[in-house]
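Hey team,

Filing this mostly as a record. A colleague (T.K.) asked me to run one chain through the structure pipeline before their review meeting, and I want the input and output archived in the tracker in case anyone asks later how it was produced. No errors, nothing strange. Just documentation.

Input sequence:
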Amino acid sequence: MSDEQRKLWMSQWRSAAIELEKVRARELRELSEQDSADLFNRCGIPECDYWISPERSQASGLVEQQRCFMRSAEYASSH
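Output structure:
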């Protein structure tokens, strides 16, 4: 592979990484509490191996956690 081909190849992967990050961020924003809980429940972890609080029995908290992170990042960038 020539240097020019290698540079083009790396550029393509960098572009793909940027676009994939945009897709990931959009999918996380669109994820509902129920979707998050369903995904967690599909992990196949036997229920007897961990304790889950009643308020988390229907939601994993991932969506709310992401909202908090985004608010924190927005606050940090504005101050």
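Quick notes for T.K.: Residues 32-79 form one domain. The mean pLDDT is 85.
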